[in-house]
Amino acid sequence: MRTVKDRIRHTLGFEIIGLIIFVPLASWLFGFDIHSIGLIAVVGSIIATLWNYFYNLLFDHSLLKLRGDVHKTVPIRVLHAFLFEGGLLLLFLPMIAWYLGISLWQAFMMDITMATFYLMYAFVYNWLYDKVFPISANPLLSQRKDVVA
After folding, report:
1. What is the 3-state secondary structure (H, E, C) of the chain?
2. Can you give the pTM of this predicted structure?
């Protein structure tokens, strides 16, 4: 299991890097000024940051209970990303439509595009994060300095 400090590092890194990539790309793609897209992205990021922390905590506890470990295979990574983005899709749709003054259908299409970006980004980011900061099979071992994980 990951520590609270590690989960915070994971979440903040995910959101900051995601915003740096997403805002200019989305502004260009959707034709809205960078301020409008940026505001939606930042508000969405705050919501997603909170969701990310609690979702990953719940997901890891579920894996531990169901499988006995938190190792994520590629199929589990895919499921993890889809469930995460599906929850955000439901949260962001009304906000996008209201703020940009567009129809729910237009907001849905925009949200699907954003979710697709973040789905791919989440898969890559989480995979790389696990490579850079691997999870020890035994959380007690990861805290011992004399054991190489």
Report:
1. CCCHHHHHHHHHHHHHHHHHHHHHHHHHHHCCCHHHHHHHHHHHHHHHHHHHHHHHHHHHHHHHHHHCCCCCCHHHHHHHHHHHHHHHHHHHHHHHHHHHCCCHHHHHHHHHHHHHHHHHHHHHHHHHHHHHCCCCCCHHHHHCCCCCC
2. 0.65
